[in-house]
Design brief:
Mean pLDDT of chain B: 83
Largest interface: A-B, 51 and 48 residues
Strand content of chain A: 5-15%
Order of helices and strands of chain B: HEEHEEEEHE
CATH architecture of the largest domain in chain A: Orthogonal Bundle
Order of helices and strands of chain A: HEEEHHHHHEEHHHHHHHHEEEHHHH
Strand order of the largest sheet of chain A: 1-2-3
Largest sheet of chain A: 3 strands, antiparallel
Number of domains of chain B: 1
Distance between the termini of chain A: 26 Å
Low-confidence stretches of chain B: 1-13
Structural class of chain A: alpha+beta
Structural class of chain B: alpha/beta
Oligomer: heterodimer
CATH class of the largest domain in chain A: Mainly Alpha
Number of helices of chain B: 3
Radius of gyration of chain B: 18 Å
Mean pLDDT of chain A: 87
Shape of chain A: globular
CATH topology of chain B: Beta Polymerase, domain 2
Chain lengths: ~425, ~190
């Protein structure tokens, strides 16, 4: 618990309207005593909330009467930074939106820029981008499942999940040379192609991650304590979720089969075989199981991609968008000039605006871009799933027990970088 | 700035749009739909502020629209252009698998717009964010206060006339709290 003053998000409890205190139901053994709700401030740094968020709780015993969620502790001014740079200079910032699945953000931003420019990346690039997205989605889901088990007291299961994530980060490494802050995708291409041994490496790492995942499932899904904490907690009707703009595994666990990869296929998702798992009850257990199944589907997709990916270039052949390559720059005048222009000025999309969505680790990740025809964005706005999903935390936990905050918050999987932009 | 979707362009000057939603909006809210466009396939309608709530309710409730999800609310600052601001709504219909963008132009000296929280509950945080970063005030919002920045923060950093390197006054414990609802929005 922390004091109310200090900079940032202070004094909130004074502004909240009178709490919706429900009187305690009189039972035979209850005494008619005066009652005031207890205030409890969880966070912004709490050992059981991964992510910097503050929850102001009003409690009636252990029951939550009112919950107010405060975000913004990780606000770094993503949009302001992007507006002050060139279009292509935003990529490293996108890594740091959802830093658990940076490649999906890279891909989403590149697709939005390409839509604005009216170009399409070459075939091989599209397959590689699908691989990159699915590898990142897997690492995102493993982090979510691992952190959840840790925060519910299952430390061993956490180690299995993190070890599985390491396997995926080895693939990040093979794709772009970095494990976390990837900066891999470029407008109209990729920073580099993969080596010849990538197919074998991917299959080996996926098999290792799959084995670890099986251990994780065996440990958790037969554990009565884990199941008790997850089953029937954090439920919110699907109509409510839709109203609040909740997408991704949370929405699918409630039975709405909305997945951007299926609904509005981008890249080559329409040519790949995969299922969209949905839940029924919409509780935390369903959210967990949907992620478990999505991990299997992502693995299936990557295996198809590495087998079917064609040979060819990964960059568009357009000197206004992509660098010509150092070999030609050293030998030819035209390419030298093109390189100079593209580094100092960058691509210049025509006047207009676009919105491009991809399926992120936690739901629909969209980019809304506005161009005035210059090399700098007028507007570079990520529609981040974590922001809308975290908004649904209050209605999910109000009326339930204090202990249910932990699994519900875990399954929302709020990623500070993405939520706070 | 030459924007193809400039709000001054009359709607009837455009070719009939391909999107049935846009055609429906043009027919139903003639005079309030200032322009439509389909740049790169994104259906966009520029709507008069006075008709915003009516248009939003129609887009949500009409079975031919059924935009049940509000994905995003944000604003764009076209400094030097009139009207200076645009508030932008991105809508999704899950059942019809369709998207539409609604934009509302706002004048610099009157950045006030009705809140769409009564239509989509999810607008709550998104409108607070737009208020926080652009200083657009949402009329009828149940709890309009800053969401990312602290109450003592001066100005609205995503406005184009807010310098990126600007320093904020240091505040400490016990700083005098300002009422965000009576904040001078032009600051």
């Amino acid at each position: 618990m922390s004091d109310t003053h200090g900079h940032g998000h202070a004094h909130v409890e004074e502004e909240t309207p009178a709490p919706k205190v429900r009187p305690i139901e009189p039972t035979e053994d209850s005494l008619d005593l005066p009652f005031e709700p207890m205030e409890l401030k969880m966070g912004p740094s709490h050992p059981a909330t991964h992510g910097t968020v503050r929850i102001l709780l009003k409690l009636d015993g252990e029951r939550i009467v009112n919950a107010e969620v405060e975000v913004g502790y990780l606000h770094r001014g993503f949009e302001k930074e992007c507006e002050s740079g060139l279009w292509y200079q935003a990529f490293p910032y996108t890594d740091r939106l959802n830093y658990v699945s940076p490649l999906i953000n890279n891909v989403g931003y590149a697709l939005a820029c390409e839509k604005l420019l009216g170009i399409e990346a070459p075939e091989r690039c599209q397959w590689l981008r699908v691989i990159a997205s699915e590898v990142s989605r897997m690492s995102d889901h493993y982090t979510c499942l691992g952190a959840c088990s840790l925060e519910l007291g299952a430390f061993t299961a956490f180690l299995y999940a993190v070890e599985a994530r390491e396997q995926l980060w080895d693939l990040h490494d093979a794709l772009c040379g970095a494990r976390v802050t990837t900066n891999y995708v470029r407008i109209g291409g990729l920073s580099m192609d993969v080596g010849r041994d990538f197919r074998e490496l991917a299959k080996e790492r996926l098999a290792a991650a799959g084995k670890l995942q099986q251990d994780l499932e065996d440990l958790l899904l037969s554990n009565p304590i884990f199941l008790d904490r997850m089953e029937g907690t954090g439920v919110l009707a699907k109509e409510k979720l839709v109203q609040l703009g909740v997408t991704g595994p949370l929405l699918r666990a409630a039975g709405v089969p909305y997945d951007v990869r299926r609904a509005q296929p981008y890249l080559v998702y329409d040519r790949i075989d995969f299922d969209v798992p949905i839940g029924e009850a919409g509780d935390n257990l369903d959210r967990f199981l949907v992620r478990i199944e999505e991990l299997k589907q992502s693995r299936r997709m990557i295996e198809q991609c590495v087998d079917r990916m064609p040979e060819g270039p990964v960059d568009v052949d357009d000197p206004h968008v992509r660098l010509a390559g150092k070999g030609r720059v050293f030998e030819r005048m035209e390419e030298l000039i093109a390189q100079f222009k593209i580094v100092t000025e960058g691509p210049k999309p025509p006047v207009g605006e676009v919105y491009q969505a991809v399926e992120g680790g936690n739901g629909e990740l969209g980019f809304y871009l506005v161009s005035d025809g210059t090399g700098r964005p007028v507007k570079c706005r990520p529609r981040s799933p974590s922001f809308s999903n975290t908004q649904a935390l209050s209605p999910m936990i109000e009326g339930s027990m204090l202990a249910d905050v932990i699994p519900t918050f875990d399954m929302i999987n709020m990623i500070g970088g993405e939520c706070d932009r | 700035m030459s924007d193809p979707t400039d709000a001054t362009e009359p709607a009837d000057a455009l070719v009939q749009p391909a999107s049935p939603v846009l055609r429906d909006l043009l027919a139903r809210f003639a005079g309030h739909v200032l322009a439509v466009s389909e740049h790169r396939g994104d259906a966009t309608a520029i709507v008069d502020r006075a008709a915003l709530l009516e248009v939003c309710r129609h887009l949500r409730d009409d079975p031919a629209c059924a935009f049940d999800m509000l994905l995003d609310v944000t604003a764009v600052d076209y400094l030097g252009r009139r009207p200076r601001f645009e508030v932008v709504y991105h809508l999704l219909s899950i059942d019809r698998n369709d998207r539409v963008r609604v934009k509302v132009p706002l004048e610099e000296d009157d950045p006030v717009i009705p809140s769409v929280v009564p239509v989509w509950a999810g607008a709550d945080w998104l409108e607070r964010e737009t208020f926080d970063l652009y200083g657009v005030r949402f009329d009828g919002h149940p709890n309009l206060k800053r969401i990312y920045l602290y109450e003592e923060f001066e100005g609205h950093p995503l406005r184009k006339d807010y310098p990126k390197e600007k320093r904020q006054p240091l505040i400490g414990p016990g700083a005098v709290r300002r009422d965000p609802m009576n904040d001078d929005l032009t600051r």
